[in-house]
Structure formats: C-alpha cells, structure tokens
DNA sequence: ACTTGCCTTCCATTGGACGGAAGGATCACC
DNA sequence: GGTGATCCTTCCGTCCAATGGAAGGCAAGT
C-alpha cells in the first residue's frame, strides 16, 4: 500500500517517537520498512532541508526546521500562548503541576505542562496522549465530546491502576456530574499517588476547546480552593481567546 | 534546481511561516512554486499522513503530527524540560519576562519564553530568531561562540533602534566584559522601552549551551538582584542537565 | 584474518509522479 | 441570469526520476 514517493519520506519521519529520538540510518530504514539505499538518499534530502539533523555520533534526529514548523500548528498557536500567563499564575497560586490539554480523537493530547521541582510524579508529557477515562482533563473533554466519541471511549475502558473506572455506567454517571458541576476529579485512576482536578476552557461561542487541570497528591482538603483557582484561570483564557481576533 | 519529488513536499511545508499559518491550496501552490494539480496531490498525501490539516474554511494548516514530531527535536528535548521548573521559579521571583535561547547559526533562537500579563512588550516569540548583537541572550551566546561566527556577526551589525550597537569595536569590548563578568545587558538596543540581562547556561563540560535572560523596563536599580537570580537558575539548569544521563 | 555491523556510491530499469486540460463549485458584479 | 474570477478536484498519457540490488569501504568485535 501507499509507497507513494512522498509518503516514503514521511514514513522515515514517522520512525521517530518519544522512545526513539535518535536513530542510525539502518535503524531508520528498518523502522520505516525501506531498503537501506533508498533511506539513505531520502534522509540526505531531509537533512539538507533541515527536517532532520545528524549528530556527531552519526545518528539522526528531528531537525530544527521541523521544530519551527510544529510551533505553527494551530493546536497551540492560539490556545497555548493565550493560556501561558494564566498557567503561570495558576502554578504560582497552587505550586502543583498544571496541565493544558485538548481532545485528539479518542485521547487526551497534552498541549502544555507546567511543573516545579517538588510535584507529584506524573505520567504526562507535552505532546503525549493518554486515555480520556483515567485523567481529570480527559473526563472534562469527554463530558463535552460529541456522542460518537463518547461511545467509542466507553467501549473499551482499559484498566490502568486498581482505581481506574472500567464500568461504563459509572463513568457515564460521573460525566453527567462533570457537566452539571463544571469540574472533574480523579483519584489515583491513572497513576498511584496522583489525584487531579480539571475544568473546561471555553471558546468564543461557549464550546469546550480545552481542559485545564491540576495534579496533586491528595484532593480532599483543598478541592474547593483548587477548583476556584482553576475556574478563574479558565475564564481568563477564554476572555483572551475571544478577544484575540482569531487571526 | 532540486525538484526531487521529496523536496516538493518539503517546499510545500516550507510555504508556512509565522505570517502564513493558514493557506489555501492555490496560495500554497503559488508559494511553493508548484503547479496546482501537483500541489493538490501532494497536499492530499500530507493531510492523510497528518503533516497538514484542513480547516472547515478549506484552508490548510500544519497538522498535529508535525507538532508532535517537532517536540522530539533535540533543540529542546533535554534543555527545555530541564529548564522549565527553573524558568517558573525565576518568573515567580522577578515577575518579568523570562527567555531561554540558543544560538542557531548567526542568530538567536528562542527556545522558551515565559511572560505574565503585565510585562514589557517584547518582540521575541518562541521559535523566532533575532539578531545576536541586539539582545541580552544574543550577546551571551555571541561572547562564547566560535570565532568564525563572531566574525560573521560583527561583519554586519544592522541597526534596529537608535541605541543598537553598530560599531564592531564597541561590541567586541562588551563581549570581553561579558566573558569576564558572567552576564550581559542591553538597553533599548532591540526595542525601545526594553532592557535586558542575560547569563550563560553551561553544559556538563562547562561549554555554553544556552542563555537565560530577563526583559525589564529599566535596569539600573535592580541589576544586582536580577543577575544573581539568573545565576541561581542557570546553575540549577546546568545541574539537572549534567545529571540527566543525556539519554 | 574473518565476520558482522555500519555507511556510501553507482547506474540500468521501470513504475509512478507529473501537470495540462477539462469540469464543477462558488462568489461578485453588471 | 449572464459573465468573469477564483477557487478546488479529477483524469490520464508521457516520460523522467526514484528505486534498490550490488559492490566497496570502514570500524569493532571474536
């Protein structure tokens, strides 16, 4: 299938992921399923253009030009920079890990993360994707997702920790409350020792465009304070988004 | 020249920049110098792969997959996340715009920026490049750059504001002091009303890998405090970088 | 010295990219 | 409703440029 010449180059790029940030030529060829000679030539072109770069070690890595390009993606172009100051404020006020995430298909995509030195260890990384049913931001986004998405996610609720919610009925019930109360919580459902709170970030016409969340070791005592801090920040972001001409 | 099939696709990607984040098919073709039919086919492939995405309006933008990929670039992979908590601390301690930058050829490339609501308006954006001789981080990086780079930069010191340093001798003198004193400053040399301080960030073997800077409206009163805050942060980053196994 | 793993270059073959042309859709203006 | 602009999409015969096997060169490991 495929094998269109362009897609070969793309297959090469696709060989990189979080676990494979640097690859030798042959590893690259192997992972992309291309003959060595072909890979060699394509990689050469990609390097010349700046999509890849070669380390002194001879291994290849993603180049600066792709990094540049990535920054232009609308995933974050508007949202991320609008949110940035509010994330800092939020961090300053709470001193815990702050997350900004959007829905990508049936997963949560982390757009930005802000954490200090002394935070709960968390799984998320900027650019990584996690299941929606086991994270705070995920629940928020799921609660406001179109029906077909919700159906698909409810279809396979994979267990991550002993506390992960795997019964569709129970999750549905929670989602209803998320919509009613305006925030979602989790308790060690994604990783042990980590709880989270999250609220929706709304766009100009009230639609949910992202979710803003905090990760803390324990939720019971501070919930109210955290939720209100989150809501202040979320509203601030919405305000900026609305006024940003969406140029 | 070029015209290799792969590079056509890359030319299409190259048609995007900060001023052109969304393009129609024909604009894309025009900017890339390709026949419409060809562009159409290639863009189709790029979309299918996720390198581009199509808005409801019909315009094309950089897709999420490229955003993902960009995050893997070593420009920031290690540096940026190592620095992140320290940038926040620094912001918390000073409440002014914080910059993290590296040298890219003969320019300064901004890797990360952190600014609150109430800061001096600054030109820089993450992913953007500015001249080295007119910015604080630029002077730091230039002071520790290899000789040929320094020579080239000194060759054309373009004027940006009335205060921009355009005499090679004077800049050289400043660079010497930057190396001696361990920090650089600017006074409205890049944009009026903005001054800056910056210090080097050193890697495991003492080489300068990045620069850390602050932008403030006025430097005179607080210089000492800002410099020491910067140095604490820079040392912290270096420490993390060194211990990070450089996996 | 032999093997096994990398990377690089060459070049004859051929299959898939190319792009002109034609068709459709949507606007705006007369 | 006609006319002209500007956009997007599809088709298909030509032909050229990507392909990848083969051969050669390093460098390490046994």
From TrEMBL, chains A, B:
The keyword Ion transport does not apply. The keyword Acetylation does not apply. This is Glycerol operon regulatory protein. Residues 3-64 form the HTH iclR-type domain. Keywords: DNA-binding, Glycerol metabolism, Transcription, Transcription regulation. Signal peptide: none annotated. InterPro entries: GAF-like_dom_sf (IPR029016), HTH_MetabolicPath_Reg (IPR050707), Tscrpt_reg_IclR_C (IPR014757), Tscrpt_reg_IclR_N (IPR005471), WH-like_DNA-bd_sf (IPR036388), WH_DNA-bd_sf (IPR036390). May be an activator protein for the gylABX operon.
